[in-house]
Amino acid sequence: MMITSILAFARNSEIRVKELYSPNYPIVTFRVMIETGSMNDPKGKEGLNALTILMLAQGGTKELTYKEIQERLYPLAARINYQFDKEVSVIIGEVHRDHVDKFYKIFSDLILNPRFDEQDFKRNKDLLLNYIRATIRSGNDEELGKQALVWFIYENHPYHSPEFGTVQGLSNITLEDVKNFYKKYFTQGNIVFGIAGSYPKSLVGKIKKDFAKLPKGKPESVQLPEPEKVNGLEFLLIEKETRSTAISFGFPIAINRSHKDFYALMVANSYFGEHRTFNGILMQKIRGQRGLNYGNYSYIEHFVQDGGSTFPVPNIPRRQQYFSVWIRPVENKNRHFVLRQAIRELEILVKNGLSKEDFESTREFLLNYSKLWVQTLNRRLGYMMDSDWYGIEYFIDKVQKELRNLTVEDVNNAIKKYLNFENIKIVAVTKDAQSYMQDLISNKPSPITYVSPVSQSILDEDKIIQEYKLNARAENFKIIPVDEVFEK
Amino acid sequence: MKKITLILMLLLSNLLFSQGKIFPFKINKVVLENGLTVLSVPFDSPGIIAYYTVVRAGSRNEVEPGKTGFAHFFEHMMFRGTEKYPEQVYNDILKRLGADFNAFTSADWTAYHIVASSDALETIIDIESDRFMNLKYTEEQFKTEAGAILGEYNKSASSPFLALYEKLQDLAFTTHTYKHTTIGFLKDILDMPNQYDYSLQFFDRYYRPENCAIVVVGDFDQKKLIDLIKKYYGKWKRGNFKPEIPVEPPQTEEKVGHIAWKGKTLPYLMIGYRIPEFSTKNVDRAAIDFVSELLFSRTAPLYQKLVIEKQWVDFIQGDAPDRRDPFLFIIMTRIKREDLIDSVKSEIFKAIEELKVKPVSKERLEQVKSYMRYSFAMSLDNPNSVAYIVGNYFQLTGDPESVNELYSLYEKVTPQDIMRAVQKYFTKENRTIVTLTEEKK
Description:
The complex is a heterodimer.
Chain A: H1 2-13, E1 16-21, E2 27-34, H2 48-57, H3 66-73, E3 79-84, E4 89-96, H4 100-112, H5 118-139, H6 141-153, H7 167-172, H8 175-185, E5 191-197, H9 202-211, E6 233-239, E7 244-253, H10 260-273, H11 281-288, E8 296-299, E9 321-331, H12 335-352, H13 356-369, H14 377-390, H15 395-405, H16 408-418, E10 424-430, H17 433-442, H18 456-467, E11 477-481
Parallel strand pairs in A: 1-5, 6-10, 6-11
Antiparallel strand pairs in A: 2-4, 2-5, 3-4, 7-9, 7-10, 8-9
Chain B: H1 2-16, E1 28-31, E2 37-42, E3 48-55, H2 70-77, H3 87-97, E4 100-105, E5 110-117, H4 121-134, H5 139-157, H6 160-172, H7 186-191, H8 196-206, E6 212-218, H9 222-233, E7 255-261, E8 268-275, H10 283-296, H11 301-309, E9 313-319, E10 327-335, H12 341-357, H13 362-378, H14 383-397, H15 402-412, H16 415-425, E11 431-438
Parallel strand pairs in B: 2-6, 7-11
Antiparallel strand pairs in B: 1-2, 3-5, 3-6, 4-5, 8-10, 8-11, 9-10
Helix pairs in contact in B: 1-13, 4-9, 10-16, 12-16
């Protein structure tokens, strides 16, 4: 007995390897998942996890400078990417099978023997600071709104700190901090090495041997308290000179992929606002019938779109998730109406649920659509690793199984249990935030006009929407200038 | 040591270049009597197909004044249904299939793409052929969609990129339709609700079989595919419209523009050099694609200097989009401080001048060729990307095999070709410069 448990302990502490072998696939993918994220950032050093990941993925090794690495990788067209999130981070390598050995040497060295060069540190820190100051604050209102919503939902919670840090947090970080963070979190028990494609079988043994150089064990996981309760409609208005208003709203939900009800909620969410499709109620009513903006979607877990596709990136698992709605920019004159409309649609969903017909068609959609989420081995590997993280069977298979067993009652019960339309955090990036606040508090009618005649049924519904009461109370508003978002 | 690397690389390049073709799959090509081209590629994706309808019309075709942005607008209208399959029915069918579907428009082409289960092939052919032959929408639907377009413009307008491209293209072109971006001028977008009749004309002109291709990639049966395509698209009537795209006269002097950006921003610098159209024959044009790698790839000395060593910019990029008519080589960078704009500009010019007088080493050239080959090979990892590539080369030249011709031409590019092309096209009188900085209060 004694011996077995020691062995089990030793096995637990060694690096885990997730394999997806495919002999005909010309590309080999590595996904190294480290179980550390922004929730591990010390107070006042927000961004330390992100910066550490960048120093590995976009830095040098003990042997080679960043520049020398670029030179070696260039003729292979090999790629090294990275992701950092709240709970885990990933370093991703992709190479043609012709060069897998050469590439693995550099890739593993980046993680095992990082250079931690002062110049690389300065460049990577600037990259994160400019992402906050120039990319999202000044160049992308939608992303700003979505990120600010997460920030707002998780006040006084380990998820509060943005994945990419804050301006002050990043400014406080030293290279010594990065080295210490690396030492603490890059341990054998804290890493999963995923590998997919036509790699030589001997590589797996080599990976295990090489990564055995890292310290054994696993640092203690951060305890997550329940997110603070949302009291009524809570507003965060971001004042910015902009020609349209970007709106995001949502609230924490108590389940993730490991919970049975998640799959019932998945059907409800798809019906309400499947990402980048025309299926959702929000999309049909706000854009399709009224042409008020470009798109409207909803989510039951944190969602980051994979490049130009419509699918989420894998490897952003979270123990706690949130429901959210993303309203793409609307004309400022329609911002009051559209918020009323979206929340009213949520009320209708919560109160009425789905009809049997809608349930059937949405389920059928998801049963087929979910198979498309894993069109490349790289993505399949990512989904496999996420499934292990949640402690569930392969997610795509689980979707098939759970959805087939669902009834419309299961879905409607889940809606009632987890969704609501009264306690919501709302973020809007807009100009003249003060007047938006006054409009919302006053609950005055917010009629809209159309450039062409629309059907009477839409006009009739508009009359209800324009008077729809939102419980917006003055004490529940925060207005901040855009420069203060993610400042500290 | 260096020699060994070079020989190794040459060996590997031969592996990738079986029978002189970069594209490793067979492209089946069938042309129907009405002129519709069907391109199909069997691909190892069990149970999945990608289905593209390629229309050789984009913002380049917007020749009449006041009609910018129309090709893109029209792409939206294609989702508004037919008599047989009204909008909601069309959506419901694709929803049941669990298909991933959408469309995009660029300067030269518009593509409607679906990824779905192989079992859905006939349904897809049925609903797609129907909307391309029998599209029908009311003036009200048309006007409502105009609102969505404005929303799309607004979502992009918070980013300096759209403003930069608008200014650069507006300055660099006087007569050609590349003067405007694909989404169009804001004034034209605002006027779109009034253009219902023109939209019908646009459909009539360009949505014709001889101007389109169907691309199918993945798991399908070739004979069944062709039979179904003939059955459903056979009655599609040929058109006869030939757009007269105005020819842009040569640029004779440097053009300069500036944007004062409301709100906080880092400074941006954009430089465009007039260059020839996409070609698989013109070695100058192929050589220009190497300039992108020699100056702006992560191993380029200019990139290393500006991003890694001096850290004056947080990104810099430069390349020549493939276009059917002469367009621009576009350089874009974001600079960390306003007082560095001139220094960054002069470093870029210095690097260009060096390419004119100093031949690139054989070893470096070989590295670039290796990169281009492997980068292409790695992009072929799913049916959707393969269909995109086939569609793109079809729209550029009318023949998807042009991808193989292009990469064969790349193999022939010499250091002298690059020097000559840079001398010829990267000149002061051939360039347009746009800067964007925070508005001074």
